Amino acid sequence: MSDFNYEIKEKIAVLSKNSKGWQRELNLISWNGNTPKYDIRDWAPDHEKMGKGLTLTKEEARALAAALCDTVEDAERDEKVYRRRNRMYRLEDAMRQVADYLDVAEDELCVPDGMDLEALVERFEEAQDCNVPENDTWQNLISEYMKEEK
Fold it and tell me: What DSSP element (H or E) covers 102?
């Protein structure tokens, strides 16, 4: 293996650290006196040893950053959509369960004055237990809610 030298021009970030003290770092490094490049690799605590790494030009680093931003934004958007849909389904569940509790057809249900379905859904989400059937949890919560309102 040929000799090489390097100079860390800028320490940008520590991405992680393992139990032995090695750190995965993002640095700007000049290899063998060449133009510095972005470098991601593991380093021993004293920087005397290094693991295999990935070296990127400025253009490659920009492309990677853009791809990561797009991916993270997509994941965050998907999570928001999932949570919104899940909330909508829970509200629909609450309506069906209130109709069932009051023994009326769902399409004939008029939510009692002052009944806060959002609060009922929040209570359900807090009380939900995978070992208890959802219908039982709903009916217990609605029963408690109606007693509180009297």
Answer: helix 58-102
